[in-house]
Each structure stands twice: as C-alpha cells, then as structure tokens.
Write a structure and sequence with these properties.
- The protein is mainly alpha-helical.
- Helix content is 78%, strand content 0%.
- It is built from 14 helices and no strands.
- Helix 1 runs parallel beside helix 13, helix 3 packs antiparallel against helix 11 and helix 4 packs parallel to helix 6.
- The two termini are 35 Å apart.
- It is a multi-pass membrane protein.
C-alpha cells in the first residue's frame, strides 16, 4: 500500500481518537476530562462511565458498520450510488425489528440481547437477496437498482405502518423514535453485542478485499483470475446484511452514512479496497460521532434524533451525485 495512503489512514485514526476524547465531554451536561481524572465528583464520573462513554463508543461502532456495509454494496454492484438505505436493506431490517417489537417473544436473557439483531439480520438478508437477484437480470443498471430500492422501501414502510397501527402506546412511541435513528439507548450490553458481531465481520471483509478489487473488473474476468465469484458474493452479501442488521437493531434507521462515506473515501484514497475498507470504517465512525455529538448539543437540554441530522446532510449529497453522474453520461 502506498505511503501516502498509509499516512492518510493513520491521520484519520488519530483525528478519530481526538474527536472521541472530545465527544465524551460534550452534551447537555459538560463533563471536562480533567475533572473526571481528578476524581473529585463521583456522580459525574458515573454519568461519564455509564451513559456518555457507551454512547460515544456505540456511535463509532454503528458509524463504522454502516459505512463498511455501504462500501461492500458499492463494490459488489460496482455502483457509487448503492447504499443500504436507498436499496431498501435498512428498511428490510427495520420491518423485521418492528415485527419483533410489536410481537415480543419471551426468551432467555442472552438470547433477548441478540434477538432484535437476529430478526433485523433476517429482514436485511431477505432484502439483500432480492436486490442482488434482480440486479443480475440486466447488467446491473442504476435505474433498475433504484427502482427496486424504492419498491422495497415502500413495501417495508407500509408494513411498519401497519405494525405501528396495531401497536400499543408504548410500542408506538418506541417505533417512532427508533424509526428516526437515535443512540440514546446506548448501554454497555448493547455495545458489547454489536461489537461482537462487527469485529469478526470486518475481519472477513478485510480478507476479501483483494477479491473485491478483482470483482470490479467484472464477474467473468474475476473468475478467470481465480476468484470463486459466487462464494465471494454470498459471503460479502451476508456480511453487509449482518452489519446493517446490527446497526438498525440498536440505533434505528440512520441514513446516508453508507452512501456518503465510501464515496468520499474513494475520491480521497482511490479505488483499492485494501485502503477503502479501513478508510470507510474510520470515516464512518468519525462522521456519525460528529453527527451524534451535534444532535445532543445543538438543542440541549433536548436531543435531536441523529438519523434526522444525517438525512439533512446526506440528501443534498445524494442529489449532487445523481446530477454529477447524469452530467457525465450526458
């Protein structure tokens, strides 16, 4: 890997570490780091340790997961507009979690921790398989992908609407807040659950970075170069669905991280997935951490759902991408 790219990745990692340290001090209640280290106020230390720190770390994990899922989808479909939210994968996961919320099932404590993620995984996987199969029908055209995504989003949105209609007041409020995307329910247990799924998934995707590079040449060329195309595609689809499912189950629907971040990283570091994959993870974590810090400080003591903020920032970027591609093909 070129030295420039390595230096860029290390610089991004350093910026992320500094932002993480700063973010733990910002919020409705300011928690200066020097005050925490002095140990003079145990109540503030407990707030920092049990509320603020898990939320900051969860933002890193969720942001990295969503950005990496978008990176994998864009690489598989060879399309910079492929995104878990736009293609309906997030909606599939959201529909499955909504079903879990409205129709709860009593399970042992450990299974209850992972049950929302399992249901989200099944929903995300179903949407991913449908998109992938349909995209193979006609040369992976952009219009076909977006139309399929619109249809899946509409169908899953209608299903969530029906489930909201039959839910009770507590379930309805939970679904409403969760649908806008928030990290307000962060706990060490949820952080542990998401991290235990993310880390092995990231390692699997990293090991397939070279194969993903060869897939950019086309399936036939990749096959001749020694890539087992079908196996690699299935593994990457499963991994991306798992990343989206873990994120949606914990934080709700947070849009545009998977669209904006991988595209920016490709513009900055090039198209080599050995650089794009770690760059997307770091930049996705950085972007969501900034968005969540802004969401809990801009309107303090109230809190803005972080999913609304990322959508406000991401929608103009999406429009710019569409018009830019239209201008290139015009």
């Amino acid at each position: 890997m070129p030295r420039r790219i390595l230096c860029s990745l290390w610089g991004l990692a350093l910026a992320l570490a500094l932002m993480t340290l700063l973010a733990t001090g910002f919020g409705a209640l300011r928690l200066p780091v020097n005050l925490l280290w002095s140990g003079t106020d145990e109540a503030l230390r407990q707030i920092w340790l049990t509320i603020r720190l898990p939320r900051v770390l969860l933002a890193l994990v969720i942001g990295g997961s969503l950005a990496l899922a978008g990176c994998v989808m864009q690489g598989l479909f060879r399309n910079p507009l492929a995104d878990p939210g736009l293609l309906g994968i997030s909606s599939g996961a959201a529909c499955a979690v909504a079903l879990w919320v409205v129709l709860p099932i009593t399970l042992p404590a450990l299974l209850m921790l992972y049950a929302p993620m399992l249901s989200a995984f099944l929903g995300a996987l179903a949407a991913t398989v449908v998109i992938f199969l349909l995209s193979q029908q006609r040369e992976n055209s952009l219009s076909r992908l977006l139309l399929v995504g619109i249809a899946i989003n509409a169908l899953c949105g209608a299903a969530v609407g029906v489930l909201s209609w039959v839910s009770n007041d507590a379930q309805l409020r939970q679904l409403s807040l969760w649908g806008m995307g928030s990290l307000g329910q962060a706990q060490w247990s949820t952080l542990l659950a998401v991290t235990s799924l993310m880390i092995p998934t990231v390692l699997v995707i990293w090991r397939l970075a070279a194969a993903l590079n060869l897939l950019q040449l086309g399936e036939e060329e990749a096959h001749y170069l020694g890539v087992d195309v079908r196996i690699v595609q299935r593994i990457l689809l499963l991994c991306s669905a798992l990343l989206v499912a873990a994120a949606v189950a914990v934080s709700g629907v947070i849009g545009f991280i998977g669209l904006v971040v991988p595209h920016l990283i490709r513009m900055w570091l090039g198209s080599d997935h050995r650089a794009v994959i770690p760059g997307s993870v770091l930049a996705g974590a950085f972007l969501l951490l900034i968005a969540d810090t802004a969401a809990r400080t801009l309107v303090a003591p109230a809190e803005m759902p972080v999913g609304l903020l990322t959508s406000i920032l991401g929608a103009p970027w999406f429009l710019w991408l569409i018009f830019r591609r239209g201008g290139q093909h015009g």
